[in-house]
Write a structure and sequence with these properties.
8 helices, mainly alpha, binds flavin-adenine dinucleotide, 2 domains, 2 strands, two-stranded antiparallel ribbon
Length: about 170
């Protein structure tokens, strides 16, 4: 940033901020609305648990809330809208997350991204919101190379642990 001057005048210190992401049980059992109140976006935990993207869901929950406020029962209408438009996808991602963020799977995914154009396309579609989680597994399996499929199958048999390398 210093070299390009893009951050002139800005304080160039590293910082981090947590992005709220809920597990599938919380998403299902703790509705983000009640009599007289609605939670939207991050406040409602409407963030993709895998990609951590929340802008789309924040905007969409805003639209759903605005529409719900025009009905006679905003709480019910908002929750119905969330369950129709957002929550099924987020709960699916929350369930997948446990399997996604394992060292074995992450390593496999990095190798797959480096070697397969088809898998790069699937993951680009996922990040861009064009690939729903409901059909992700089927599409990934259809594009997997034999060697990657074999490694995935072996990892699943070991309960998700990567292979121990021996000399
Ligand atoms: C470092 C980082 C990178 C991210 N990258 C991406 C990305 O690439 N793509 C993506 O989709 N998502 C990304 N996200 C997530 C995304 O930014 C959030 O999910 C999204 O902004 C949530 O929108 P929101 O309106 O719910 O909350 P926010 O955007 O946080 O808006 C809440 C607003 O309320 C204000 N506020 C808080 N308390 C009060 C108060 N008491 N009174 C008045 N105002 C108050 C805050 O200042 C803030 O402006 C990222 C988040 C972080 C932290």
């Amino acid at each position: 940033m210093r070299a390009t001057g893009v951050g002139d005048g800005a304080r160039l210190a590293r910082y981090g901020w947590p992005i709220p992401s809920l597990d599938d049980v919380t998403l299902t059992c703790q509705p983000p609305a009640g009599p007289g109140w609605l939670l939207l976006g991050d406040a409602a935990g409407l963030v993709d648990p895998i990609t951590r993207e929340g802008i789309y869901f924040a905007l969409e929950s805003g639209e759903l809330a605005a529409a719900a406020l025009e009905t006679s029962d905003p709480t019910a209408a908002y929750l119905e809208g969330l369950w129709h438009e957002i929550l099924p996808e987020l709960t699916r991602a929350a369930r997948l997350k446990r399997r996604f963020f394992r060292s074995g799977f992450t390593g496999l995914m990095v190798d797959a991204l480096a070697t397969s154009t088809a898998i790069r396309k699937v993951m680009a579609d996922l990040v861009a919101g064009r690939q729903p989680y409901a059909t992700l597994k089927r599409r990934l399996v259809a594009t997997l190379h034999v060697s990657l499929a074999w490694r995935l199958w072996r990892m699943e048999r070991r309960g998700g642990r990567p292979a121990v390398r021996t000399r």
